[in-house]
Every structure is written in structure tokens, then in C-alpha cells.
Amino acid sequence: MTAKTLFLALSAVALAACGGSDDPTFSPDAMPEIDSGSGARQFELHIEAAGLPYTFVKSGTFSTPEGGTEMGPIFPGDAYSVTFSAAPGARLSFETMFGPSNDFFYAPGPEGIALYDDEGEPISGDVTDQVSLWDAGTEINQEPGCGADVGPNQAGANTGAVDPVATVRLAADDFDVLPDPAEVLKVTLTPGEDRTFSLRIENVSSDDTLVTSCSSSAVPLAPGVWAIHTAPGALFADGEADRGDGLEAAVEDGNPASLAAAVTADTGLIVPLSPGVWAIHTASGVLFTDGEADRGDGLESLAESGNPSVLAENLASDTSLADTGTFSIPDGSDSAGAIVPGGGFTVTFSASPGDRLSFATMFGLSNDAFYAPGQDGIELFDGQTPRSGDITAMISLWDAGTEVDQEPGIGPDTGPQQASADAGAAEGGVVHAIDGQDDGQTYPATDSVIRVTLTPM
């Protein structure tokens, strides 16, 4: 089993022996009759993966030359540099304007540059051969360096005529003047610790690199945007029109601000939520006690690997609980597994005034983080009135304190990256709430990842 499939596989552990309403044959009709005189009610609990299907894992801009203090283009001997972290499977894309053109830019192909080889080793060294000169198809081409509307000659932004071939494509050397990319820039990747990389884009052109009918000159390169992704076509697609999200301004005028804003809005973690456990109770500390070490009854397996079976089995033997069970089958599915944005788990249970609800589901990109209410659970009634509606504000992200934290989704022992269950270094800590940061790692806001609702039935 590969590291990439381990988390999902662990999340798909068969849970039939543990009971609960995640059986695909479950029906409300199968629920026992409720004694209306006791005030008991049926509830539906819905746990939704509320995140967005982001295109980019990370992104940013490069705009200030090395050693400089102000934004600007780079000339011969200058360079831009960027440092980022990325996990195996990630790819790098970027764009920088070929300054003396109408809308030419240097970039890897739409698929980006792989940051790891097939053995999972980080790519290192010169990757210029994976960079090409592209035509954005937004402005009609004139002779580079000579036309009235090329970068340094234009009277204002976006002054050239519209390109009749409105598709992104490899730049054609219509004027027989374009230099080879390696004569203009050198792109290198240098791996560092903790899956970090340094990207360096150096201008290696000289005063006679671009020889045209009007002059000989170097090729300035403009500030640009970089992004880490897994799917192809991140910034553009070969043969398709510009998407109107800012690439035009970046490659016509050397202004990446609009493109950077669009990419930033589409950058974030796609967090899977694992199958989990739920319990109806009256006592405190059913799943954990805030500030105390994990009890060794299965929370560790859930929080580290998305496997709730051990914890579910122990809860099922706890006679103090009014009811307990698991959720493992995503809505609309016939098999157990984690949920991603757009997916959800649904549980139906009965409860009486005085009862509380607890549940737990793994933050799938972590070492040992999970979503749950506080140790007391959530009161299901206000007097005799059942609680109803969005209860996400009552949910927190917790650290089980069992494994040393690494960067979510990047660290080698986080959910989808780990080579085997329980592979990370033991932390020996206590269960505690994560308030945005934990052990130096940054986590998204709870309501941007999970949404939880209660509906009395």
C-alpha cells in the first residue's frame, strides 16, 4: 500500500461490528419507537466537508530582485527567488513576462514542473529545459523590442490591438529574432529541509541576446506569479483562450497583481474528514479530557490515521452511554471512506432532555488533529426544546498530543503522506484545542473546513 492511499484505506475500515447508523441499509423506519411522554426525540446529525476544491496548494509572487528593496524587473545578472514547501506529487508553475514583447511570457508547460521524481526524491538543479516561451494570445504580435505596443514602448497599459488568434500557445518566431529560453533565463530548484525548495529565476541575457531590425538588447523579465498544484492547466491551457483572471496584465504589462489576487483566492488546503465516532451521554469526558493525555482507548488511531474502529469498539462497551455508533459511509456512497469538499456524513439517533452529543473526525492532513465538541459535548435540549440548526461554532480542532506535528499535508507523517499507521514520532503531550496554530504549524479556520448541523425529526 502506498503512502498516498494509506489514509483513505484506513478510513475505509469495516465498522459493522461497532454498530451505529452508518449501515448502508439503515432506515429511519428501523428505529425503535420513541416514547413521546419521555420527551425523547430523533435527531439527524450532518457533518459536511465545507472547504473549497482549491486549485493551488500554495502560491505567491516574485517582484523584488535579490538584494533589492523595491519591486521591479530583473536585468542581466539579477534574479528572483522564492522559498516554499511541497509534498511528493506537487508541481510548480510560474510566469514572467518576456519584457520586449506584446504578450510573451516564460513558463513551464500547463502541467508544471514535477518537484519529486518517481522514487519520491526531490528534484534538484537546473530545470530551464522545462521552461518555454508562450504567447498569451491577447494582443497582436509586433517585432520584439521594436513595435509601438511592446512592453517598454507602449504608451499605456493594454494599448495594442487584439490578437485575432485568441489562444495561449507556444510563441512563434514570426520575426526570426527570438532567442532560446536558456539564453535569457536560468531556472534552478534547490531542495532544503522539511520538504522545502528554493526557486531561483536568473536573468542570463546580455546586450546582444535579442537582435532585431531596430536594435540589440538584453531581455528584461517582469515580476510574476508562482503556484504549487497537482492538476494540469493551473495557470493556462495550451490552445485555450486566456481565462481573464489577470494573466493578460501580467504578460502584456508586467503587472501580476490581478493574477496574484485570483490565484490567492484559489489557494488553500483541501482537507479530507475521516470516518468517526459519535456518542449520546450525560457525563463529561466521554472521548477525552482537555489537558490530559490520551487514554489509549482508540482516539490516537482516529486522530492519526482516520481509523475509528478501536475507539468505536471501546465506546460500544461503555454502559454509561445512552447510545453510540460510527459514521463511515459518505452520503450517496455505498462504501466507507473519507469525505472531501462537497461530501458529508449523516447520522440519525434518539436523545432525551439532559443528553449531550459528542463526536470526532480526523483533520485528514494532520499528524493527530481532530474535530470534536468540547469534553462536555453539546447539549441537545434547552429545557424540553430540542437544539436545531448550525452548530459549527460549538466544534473545535483538537490536538491529540500523541504525535509530533508537521506541516499539514506536507509533513511525511501527516495523514495522506505517512508510509504506515503510527509512523510519526511520539509527542507524549496532552489533548488540547488548536487555536489557529499548534507547534508552529498553521491550520485553517474550523468553519472553512467543516460544517455541522442538527435537525430534530
Walk me through the structure.
The protein is mostly beta strands. Helix content is 9%, strand content 28%. It has helices spanning 3-11, 247-252, 257-265, 299-305, 309-316, and strands spanning 41-49, 56-62, 79-85, 91-97, 104-108, 113-114, 125-126, 131-135, 169-170, 185-191, 196-203, 210-211, 216-217, 224-229, 276-281, 323-327, 344-351, 356-362, 369-372, 378-379, 381-382, 385-386, 389-390, 396-399, 432-433, 437-438, 441-442, 450-456. Strands 2, 4, 5, 6, 8, 9 and 14 form a seven-stranded antiparallel beta sheet that branches. Strand 4 and strand 5 form a beta hairpin. The two termini are 42 Å apart.
Descriptors:
single chain, 457 residues, mainly beta, 5 helices, 28 strands, 28% strand, elongated
Uncertain regions spanning at least 5 consecutive residues: 1-37
Number of strands: 28
**Number of separate helices:** 5
Percentage beta strand: 25-35%
User: What overall geometry do the principal axes of the alpha carbons give?
Assistant: elongated
N- and C-termini, Cα separation: 42 Å
- By secondary-structure content and strand pairing, the structural class works out as mainly beta
User: What is the makeup of the main sheet?
Assistant: 7 strands, antiparallel
Helix percentage: under 10%
